[in-house]
Amino acid sequence: MKNLTSGKDKESVSEKLNQQIRHLLFLNPLLDIRVIKSHLAKLPSQLKNDKLETIRLLTKQRMDFVNSSSNNGYIKRHIRNWEKEIGPVSFGDVVQLIEGSGMTIMEAAPHLFVPQQIEQWLSIYLIGQPEYARKLSFCFYLHEIRKNNEQLNLPRPSLLVHGPSGVGKTYGPHKLAELFQVPFGVVNCNSLVQEGILGNTLTTVFTQLYMKYKEDMSSAVIIFDEFDKLFEKGYYNERILNELLNIIDDDNTLTFYLNDAIYHYEKTSMKTNKMLFIFTGVFRGIEDIVRKRLNDHGIGFANGSGFNMEGDYHQYVTNDDFARYFHRDELTGRIQQYVYARELKEDDLVNILLHSEESPVTTFVNYFKMRDIDFSVTEDGARAIVAASIRQHLGVRGLKSLMFNILSDEMYAMNTPQIIVDKYFVDLKTT
């Protein structure tokens, strides 16, 4: 039995090395397709040390290619030859292939530029939010199509994302903006003041974005974060909403007054109809609208107690509930899609820690590696970290700060060759 297990382990290691070599072969577009096929044919019989040497050489060749002024023609031809001679390529692999080249997905592999492929890539980062990933991917797909076909009158996407803090409402759009290399800005609605008042007005925020991106801003992705704060009682909120409605209107033009010298202002105008607007917030208070609607329909009256919402009330919210929440038909008409970014479950947070492309664990692995310290987190250790995060209501953002607190002594001392964060380690640090 022991030898059988050992054989399975060897087979698993060999298969992982095969996958790594195949991936590196795809990431080296200067290789001739016949050389690539020869490498792939040798994999089943190749020894482990030979595979490790192949990985070392291919990694070096990849770095040389990334650091060179590469010809984008090589990339297009490489993708075409690979699909013809070897098989289909994935969206994620092409994203890595074009990294640093200045190419976009639409230029390198337009046949892969479909909402389903974008969603599959985004789900690697936006863990535990399948519905949000689907709608957000479709919005960015439409945005790119509109941006690259200005002569056509195409549907305009806009999206409202509601749900608790720390679940990825702004993280998802930021990742896609990076992927598609589009200008990206966040307007914090909680700090806005109306025009004519000293402070952050919509004009000053958009002017700052324009100074950063210039003419490219016409296709920017703009997030109105904490959008729900504009519906709280306040003297200025109603006026700020009126100003915002003008900005997100299809026919509106933004005007910037750029102060380029003393007493001299340069006036610049820009249409907003090619921008993608995303609205995010917790929207506290909407649960009262949901509860009233469900009780008015007789739901939950079998025992005479009325409807009792269990868990996160956002799961019961409909578009009509938002229409009642806004009390503004013109706003409802300007937001095409709504999506609930749900509360992340324990398994989601553990998955983020152990398997996410941008896991907080990676930063600590890199830190300790600089001092030749082997650092790892076990599954029960990850679950203990998540349990502490949930107790303290920290969400995803809090995982990194919680890990920093847990590991602060070890980060300072650096006097051990190995650190294993398991349940015992976490419990010792958090109780």
Distance between termini?
42 Å
- This entry's quaternary arrangement is single chain
Radius of gyration: 26 Å
- The side-by-side strand order for the widest beta sheet comes to 2-3-6-1-7
Output the number of helix runs. Answer: 19
> In one word, what is the shape?
globular
Strand content: 5-15%
Q: What are the secondary-structure elements, in order, as H or E?
A: HHHHHHHHEHEHEHEEEHHHEHHEHHEH
Helix content: 40-55%
Stretches with pLDDT under 50, minimum 5 residues: 1-5
Structural class of the helices, strands and pairings? alpha/beta
**Major sheet characteristics:** 5 strands, parallel
Q: List how many beta strands DSSP finds.
A: 9
**Rounded mean pLDDT score:** 87
Tell me the layout of helices and strands.
Layout: H1 2-26, H2 33-42, H3 48-67, H4 72-85, H5 91-97, H6 105-108, H7 115-122, H8 130-148, E1 158-162, H9 171-180, E2 184-188, H10 202-213, E3 221-225, H11 237-248, E4 253-261, E5 264-271, E6 276-281, H12 286-296, H13 319-326, H14 329-332, E7 337-340, H15 346-355, H16 360-369, E8 374-377, H17 379-391, H18 397-413, E9 418-421, H19 423-430
Parallel strand pairs: 1-6, 1-7, 2-3, 3-6, 8-9
Antiparallel strand pairs: 4-5
